[in-house]
Amino acid sequence: MREELSRTRLLLGEDALERLARSHVAVFGVGGVGSYAVEALARSGIGAIDIIDNDKVCLSNINRQLIALHSTLDEYKVDAALKRIKDINPDCKVTAYKTFYMSENRNMFDFATYDYILDAIDTVTAKLSLIEQANAAGTLIISAMGAGNKLDPTAFRVADIYETKGCPLARVMRRECKKRGIAHLKVVYSTEEPVSRNENTSESADTPRPRKLAPGSIAFVPSVAGLIMAGEVIKTLSGIYKDT
Known about the structure:
This protein has 244 residues and is α/β, with parallel strands linked by helices. The chain is built from seven helices and seven strands; from the N terminus they run H-H-E-H-E-H-E-E-H-E-E-H-E-H. A seven-stranded mixed β-sheet has the order 3-2-1-4-5-7-6, with helices on both faces. The protein has a single domain, classed as 3-Layer(aba) Sandwich (Rossmann fold).
């Protein structure tokens, strides 16, 4: 076993590391949440990681996304993540998909080959399709709820979607999952009420505003959600506890 994982071996044991090395995990969305999840998976010795995202790194990503640097501007996020994974663990098999997942391209992925799926994408329709495909394949999945407009990293919880409260995205997902007969869904969500947007800007009253403003975000919140998601995956795949 690689010396880089010697401290992990002391905590989990050799058998657990071997299970992680045999594991194949997919991360859909490599932004503020997904990039930190990918980092933890790579540093924990996951043997094969698929990363799926069609965005390129831009300046507004730098405040919160691990792979966003001035040196990676205009690179595809999955390309930047792939290089980082390989720099951490050259033995990891990495497959990068420069695509935005949606139901129309679900056949690009063999969901039955994954041991675990991490859903770190933003749109409800894509999340629901991903969850349905994972369930149909019998593959474990964990889904990120809203991390935007939040300031308290200690407010994140791991729960079934039907046990969530206080998260606007989780409320929508509860309703839509129920409509589709999805009985269970493991999620990471925040109990913190969204913070009101800071409207103190230098814009004049005549400056046109976009119809839908992006949520505010900060370095220390989505990163925590991503690390929690990866932790759940690692603890399950290593055999520390059984997930369902």
